[in-house]
Amino acid sequence: MTRRLTAALAALLLTVTPFAGAPASAAPASAAPRVAEQVLTWTADDNITRYKSAPTTAVAGATTIIWENSAATGNTTGMPHTLTFDTTTEGYNHDVTLNILANPFDANDGRHQATVTLTPGRYRYFCSIPGHSQMVGELVVTDGGGGGDTTPPTVTAEVSGDRDADGNYLGAATVTVTATDADSGVDTVEYQVDDTNFQPYTQPVVVTAVGDHSVQFRATDQAGNTSTVGSVSFRIVEPDEEDTTPPAVTANLAGEQDDDGNYIGTATATLAATDAGSGVATIEYSLDGAAFTAYTEPIVVDGVGMHMLHYRATDVAGNTSAEQMAHFTVVAPPVEDTTPPTATAAVAGEQDENGAYVGVATVTVTATDAGSGVATIEYALDTGGWTPYAAPVSVRTTGAHTLRYRATDTAGNTSAEQSATFTVVADGTDACPASDTRATVIIGGDDTGVANADTGDGCTINDLIDEDAAYPGHAEFVRHVETVTGALVVAGTLTRRQQGAIVRAAARSDVGA
């Protein structure tokens, strides 16, 4: 049954898509096309975290790609793998579209061939089967002009692992070899442990035997130049005591959140583990029920919806932590608000036959915003400055007036300035029969020295300031004084300097506080 299902899956997914500029001889992978002069071979076995072998460099031009995942290469379980060339990640060539599924039970017994044209640059390839995306690598392609290359590659090695106070490695040491070649490109990298035999380097070398060790390494480029042999030496010692305690593993979620705690657009999960014994060996995670995957870098999740992240860690002694879990929700970013609010004003009060307001005109400003919502409303009476709008504005000073107004939403969009014009006339009666007739304007006992003039309807400036009225707060009282004196400046009752003296006295007072 397994053999039939695997073969069916291979038949369904086995594709090699032609690309722009492909030679006329390019053929489907299952058809064994003509072999180009350059041949690159990838192989796989039972391992699901890496390709068994893969080229690292090539030269530009027609190239035969051989992809084999068969019993001959070590696949004893029938596990399918793909060889897929990345055509979306920024920084890589995207001119080769290749997606070949191979397994020992397919029509080609796991060995497939395709002809492509490579161009100078870098190609990224990976396994596209869910849960296998960690099988990934790079192919560096040069322009083929390396005939004059006589410089060998540069090759280095780094030793890593948990160490004691003397610098000895506890239980294991990992040697990572890196080679570069700026001319024809690196062809092969080799290593040997303790002067045994050189063998191909395909992944970091883990040494676990207690004692002194030396790892030698070298690299050869496409032009045949081989570097001198490099070496790193180190000592491995037994851990002080048997480690039976699993690592402690944690997850940290980061990203912009809304009021409900949902992540807007993306959520990034960073995993960390510590182990005081033998040291952390691996961290793994499973997102939304997928197979556990080796953790190498923060996990960025941008799919809208609820997500479940499981994670665990294993130390060098083989102890695995209990499986931990984090759940979170990603929501789509809100649509950007670029539309300003809509603001309107209405003037109310008793009017005479000419439409003038008798005694007082009350202006009410309203604003609406269907996007991010209204943040502020402002108004300016006559030549006064902009003032935050908190309540309807009552204007009692006789004469013609203009009240300008505008609104700003939470996204920062401000409506165009609008205005309402009106005229206030005296109502023919004494508006302030119990008038404050002190000679100067006095606020909270602070004498401003400004004459306490009659404003035209029986009310003095002190009457209009009305320091004994109830105000929500000191700031509201000061704004009231600014509005009253601003209107008196427009009417010619006060000068700007006199208005400033009165407003400063209001600010110094504790009225409203």
What is the compact description of this entry?
The chain is mostly beta strands. The protein has four helices and 34 strands.
How would you characterize the overall build of this protein?
α3 (474-491) packs antiparallel against α4 (496-508). It is built from four helices and 34 strands. The chain has helices at residues 2-13, 461-465, 474-491, 496-508; strands at 38-43, 57-59, 61-68, 81-85, 99-102, 111-118, 121-126, 136-142, 154-160, 169-170, 173-180, 186-193, 199-200, 205-207, 211-221, 230-237, 248-254, 263-264, 267-274, 280-287, 293-294, 299-301, 305-315, 324-331, 342-348, 357-358, 361-368, 374-381, 387-388, 393-395, 399-409, 418-425, 440-443, 446-451. The radius of gyration is 40 Å and the shape is elongated. It has a five-stranded mixed sheet. The protein has a five-stranded mixed sheet with strand order 10-16-15-12-13, with no helix packed on it. 9% of the residues lie in helices and 40% in strands. The protein folds into five domains: 2-144, Cupredoxins -  blue copper proteins (Immunoglobulin-like); 154-237, Immunoglobulins (Immunoglobulin-like), CATH 2.60.40.10; 248-331, Sandwich (Immunoglobulin-like); 342-425, Immunoglobulins (Immunoglobulin-like, Sandwich); 440-508, no CATH class. It has 513 residues and is mostly beta strands.
